[in-house]
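Mods, move this if it's the wrong board.
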Amino acid sequence: MTKVLLVDDESVLLDLGRQILEKKFGFSVDVIDSGEEALKQLKLRRYDAIISDYAMPGMDGLELLRRIREKDPQIPFVLFTVRERESVAVEALNRGANFYVQKENSPHVSFTELAHKVNTSVELVRAEKNLRAQRDLAIASANSKKIEDILKHCLQAAIATSYLDAAAIYLVDEQDHLSLAMTEGFSSEYSDHVIQAHLIPLFLSLLRGTDSVFRNSQTIHEYSHILETTEKIHSDAVISLTHHSKPIGLIHIASFEDDRELSPPLQRFLQGIVVQIAGHISDRLAEDALVESERMVNTLIENLPGMVYKCSFDNDRTMEYVSEGSLFLTGYHSTDLVQNQNPTYTSLIHPDDRPRIMEVIRRAVERHAQFKLTYRIFTNTMKFKWVWEQGVGVLNENGDVIGLEGFIIDITRQKVLDDQVKVSQNRLNMLFSNMNAGCAIFLDHDGDSRFILIEMNRAAENLEDKKKEKLLGKTFQDYFGPVIPEELSTALNNLITTGTPQSLSRILIETPSGNKWREIYLSNTHVGNAREIFLIYSDVTSRIRDEEQIITSLHEKELLLKEIHHRVKNNLQIISGILKLQGMRTTDPVTSEILQDCRNQVFAMASIHELLYSSRDIGRINVNEYVGNLINHLKQEYVGANVSVRYITDIDPDIVLDIERCIPCGLILNELITNAVKYAFEPGGNGEIKVSFTHQNHFYHMIVSDNGRGITEEKSSTGTSLGTELISRLTHQLRGEITRIKGPGTTIEIVFSENPGERVHL
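Not the wrong board. Structure tokens:
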């Protein structure tokens, strides 16, 4: 776990930074609010990296960097600075900062970039330490005369590369006895014979049973009672040392602060370092160890994704040594670059970058500090690449700078990806900031579902009538005031439990300016071990009020229309009554029949208005109900007729029509049924009339048939009566087609489309 010290005078930013870096990236973060306190904390605990703000009361970030570099020139240091202070960031890099990160509007984005820079810095420092420890140990093994010097170098290398606090070496002698050879970092009481009398049997059993054993604070209790008064070990590792498959000893490494993971590759690396102890016993083995160490260093250099160099400290940076990685990096062989045989290295650097590079190197060399650079070079094909360089000045015995050493790697792909990420982040930030709906992001706090606000856009600020700075750090519940609505609480619980996005179309929220209607959408995502909730919401108070007004207005109009239909129906009934009185006063049968037909037609229309008045849907009529009413009326009208008629209906109960088409349909049915009653059957006989109204393939089929005497060919072809003309005109009004079907009796079919604007062509 990477241990980070975060220094900033903004408490909100400290809390957010710790939560994001720990939850999303697995760091262990301590927070300090001033440079002075940070220096005190560094005396108490060791850290893998330091992140510091620039603008702080008292000691600023640059002064803190200077004080830290006086004590430790290697520890990664990342400076936080706002966009307007890029000059400060450049100065920090000149003074030895590894990276700088600009503070964005979004803390979430800033700390994501911080984590990336910290990981990069820590890995580079660890790689340098491992390489330096191996090189120093190889040289010590070859040059030292005393076994004690070798052991001391081994222990120092083991502590440096494992990042633990103490180490001890035990060796097996010719009689297979295990004894303590040397310690580094442990107290003197660790070597007490009483302590060793308990530890050595335990270590012997481990040495015979396994290659390496790692214990943490939960399992160290096996011998914690032995060390509880002398050593405060929190976690430790025991690594066996073998030579030609024979155990020759072990190394005991311990941490006094916290759990430290010892990965298998690091275990093997430590074994490879410490096993060189055996090499000093034999000069031949010492030579072999040195050769192998040099081979490993050369292999590492040749396999770096770039080139290692040593050059003169001049304007051309005349190369004295260049690794073969130069071919992949620049397109030139190492022999082309050494002693400026073909191009000078400086000539490969983009002209716009050269002045800055030489100035940064000069300042770093003056302070005997490392320099880190990002710039562009041209390859032998005149394509440009982005490179990252880290180097240091080489001093002679008098302390004078005689050259530069370092390595350069190709970061073109990473640079392009970083630029693309920044462009995407800028787009997303712009969309996030300028979207009309309010958006807020909440982070799970310690896995207890107490989501805290880490980001919000301008629309959310406007909805809450508060600035973001006053709301950051509030929980989801506090964000919505003292009382969270039950529907919102239920939606949040469902989201946490199922992970399914939740939508609330309207919910009443209590705000300082009064109750407001909100439309809310909730979703969540997992980032590492952390969970984030996205809240998107808008104020729909005005819309809901408008909808309520529209509904009220619509209801009033419906009442008005119903009243109109009611009055039309009453007026038509009055007309029907007048026609009936006129029919009773006349003695002419033809006139009486005409008046009766008129009454039936008036009823056909009045019945429609009556149904509309009593219907919930004032614009549509159920055909089945309407036809039933019409047939019942006609039955009553012809009660005294000299023919007995049975009515059969086949009406689709789901068919509904608007008033514009229902009136012509009713008049047609009235005309066809009336004609059948009056003319289809023999006087004194029995008859059957069938009415069918169905829906097939987007068309309505209305059929009236009887089993009477039928229509003669002459009447069918020359039908010019008023009734026939009325049916024809009404069918045309429906944009339909009328068909007379041959057979026993008379069958009339009228077909029209369900689409009012479509004409039927049969």
